[in-house]
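FORM 7B: Structural annotation worksheet

SECTION A. Query
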Amino acid sequence: MQLPDPFDVRTAPVSAIGLIGGYAAARITGRRPLGGLVLAAAGAMAARTWVARDGIAAAAGLTAGYVAAFGLSHPLAKKVGAWPSVLAVTAAHAAAAHVVSDRYRP
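SECTION B. Predicted structure
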């Protein structure tokens, strides 16, 4: 399977698919490792694009934000519920990915 050109990938939706899809996969199947696989696959694809398109510094920051969003969703879920938590951290990270990496792409 050939990966898409990293310069043609919008990373905000990819990271959103990873965070929301990872949670949904784990929740629906009851298998947390499956959710982790979805999370990791989308994160790897987005990180590949960030490195190629924006450089190591931007990729490191956005990847750290992706991992932080995943981590922060857990304690936030105890306060607002699981889905609202996942949607909130996803929106925050997707916005960051859009501003840092996707905004000026054709």
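SECTION C. Observations
The first helix runs from residue 11 to 29. The chain has a mean pLDDT of 94.

SECTION D. Sign-off
Analyst initials: ____
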